[in-house]
Queue: 2 jobs
Job 1
Amino acid sequence: MNTNTPDTAVEELDVLVVGAGFAGLHQLDRLRKLGFSVKIFEAGAGLGGIWYWNCYPGARVDSEGAIYQYAREDLWRDFDYTELYPGWQELRRYFEHVDGKLDLSRDIRFDTRVESAVFDADANTWTVRATDGHTVTARYVVLCTGFGSKPYIPPIDGLDRFDGPCHHTGLWPQEGLDFTGKRVAVIGTGASGVQVAQEAAKDAASLTIFQRTPIQALPMRQKQLDAAAHSDLKKGMSDRFARRIDSFSGFDFDFLPKSALEVSEEERRETYEKLWEEGGFRFWLGTFNDVLFDQAANDTAYAFWRDKTRARIADPVLAEKLAPEVAAHPLGVKRPSLEQNFYDIFNQDNVHLVDLRETPIESVTETGIRTSDTEQEFDIIVLATGFDASTGGITAIDLEGTDGQTLREKWSEGVRAHLGVATAGFPNLLFVYGPHSPSGFCNGPTCAEIQGDLIVETLEHMREAGLQRIEATAEAENAWRDHVTELVGPTLFDKANSWYVGANIPGKPRQMLLYPGGLPQYLDNWRRSASESYSGFVLS
Ligand code: NA7
């Protein structure tokens, strides 16, 4: 229920933050303590960003919980996740814990979706309007909309005709939905599809998974954590957090300093076995340093993954569809997922796979899904079809800058954002975890804090220097885009149609949306700019 009361006077703020996930809450806490007047507008009714919206059965973070939290001892010292990889309920419990400690909610307006923001070039302020008409003016707008806040629902004929529940994973009903005894269809096999399928396979009468591209899911090695495990974890926390800043992806592990091709076959095999047993993203982001660059190196990793995976699937036809002999794309250049028993569920009688490359969906009917060869009845349809990632949450807002153009229009030909934080023509608008920043490759809370701190420092600098306006230059954002393009050139990322390159959304310009140089290199660039009086930005 929306309990917000309409305000008559327009509130004036130093900073309006959009989004109450990891990034937005960090901004609120830090800026407030520095004496800025700051509020968050949050579209959901609760805290957590993606963990508010993605409450589908099985939703779970693919980072270890120990490092999927703020690195602040006052927050981690007396909080424990009960699983190594916590689920959405625990993440919500974490956000409540943070709120209890930092008293954040009092400055958050929930149920408030930002619809538009217009820059006033005379006053150097933004006028921000929510869908309920509530309006504020703010000197700065910091968008913390996350990489996955705009769900993508494909234009499947008849989708709105279906009589039963049909939900996107990222818009899951807060009251939940029980799969027990139901005939469930899951469309999509990204991280969300894998997680929801594992859960539905337990209780559904039947589960039919509609796969277009096979995911390359890696073993999660989930563990329940008891008091002894918590105590052990606590001992290592400070070190683990300290290591994040030096790693490519903001984790406490990094690529090995050697090539997959320079070692003997035996050493390669032993290394892969070790990473596989350790679980998580180590087989992806803690592996040989050329796996994401060199096709021959990648082939060795893919062959290992394929053989391990196929060994778990009894039916050889299914094994070929789920883990094909010849890779659909190089391993790891499309986001892998962590799985617990995803490949094993296909040995159950109640689980079926539809290969959409052989039999595409033609339409959804009142009672089910029609593919090119048959029609099947379902009680529930789950759309695990992903997001207009990285940019979608930003371009969903009508942002009007200094030349009358919206940001949506500007980026319709491709993203330009200097250091991934600001774009020319839109002064005083900053992005945390935005496109062309390490977001997407980076452990979320790491980026929220580390990139977030740089933004806080910038605003502090502006205030101390008596400045009112910061804007990226067109030259700098073009150069940054070229830098991103240059970095991605020698990699294998362009060999998959992934959301990393915008290829999952029809019509979206194909370009690398993330910063592929890793967190340390990104931070070096920031520091250089800051030490050169914020080169690449005009401050006035
Ligand atoms: P993803 O990873 O983008 O996965 C979406 C899935 O939906 C993927 O398997 C797609 O197949 C499939 N898809 C998309 N459109 C269609 C249509 N029209 N028909 C059939 N199948 C379709 O989204 P997730 O929500 O799983 O994960 C997003 C991120 O959240 C993830 O990367 C993590 O960072 C957390 P495709 O592969 O495009 O052939």
Job 2
Amino acid sequence: TATLYVVATPIGNAGDITLRAINALAIADAVACEDTRNTGQLLSRYGLSKELLAAHEHNEREAAQRIVERLRAGQRIALVSDAGTPAVSDPGARIVDAVRAAGLQVMPLPGPSAAVAALSASGLVQDRFLFAGFLPSKAKQREDALRKLADVEATLVLYEAPHRIVDTAQALLSVLGGERQVVFARELSKLFEEIHRCSLAEAPAWLAADAKREKGEYVLLVEGASAADGDDDQEARRLLAILLEECS
Ligand code: SAM
């Protein structure tokens, strides 16, 4: 039956694809993707060749309409992004939204996502985490965005574009202070995978210690504001109240 399959694909290692994902790609009438060249190569790795529909951030609305029409005609369409899970810091949400609004079936095929992979190997408590995706690229906006996250008690999960990791580590240090733990999850599932945990104060030195660390794909996990900080605030407020009482 007509279905939009939302298919997670590898974030590095081609082995990280599920049997269901391969099956969905194999039975799809067409594959909607961010970059036809990239997805063509991915499909050929699994011995598949399909009609590819370009569906990237600049044409997502029109692509959504074309996909809805094809589903209405009874087709099965697979939606992928360049890496990981579509719609997670990637195009896809508008397409899914349009398909759902048209009353057509959407089926997720779970698989890799860099955020969850990084969390799983971080050792940080992750009963609660806040996925903040990419911070703004301009310094001022980036610091403002971080300030808004400073009091969140859950682990913060950030994505970072290659080449910006050093600036982002500096911004984290200057806005959040040096004490929190940070986990750098770099090049997950690839040849130079590295997962390193240190304090924010120690982060610049770790990045500087090896030139290759200045680039590559990173997920950054930052320990949340601790409940202890909150207690300190409460204690400060209690003392302030006593002092104000004394002064009046
Ligand atoms: N949809 C993807 C997902 O589910 O993870 C995310 C796509 S987003 C455009 C790309 C960002 O994800 C990178 O800049 C990096 O922060 C993170 N990322 C993707 N692959 C990664 C990997 N192998 N190792 C570390 N981070 C990765």
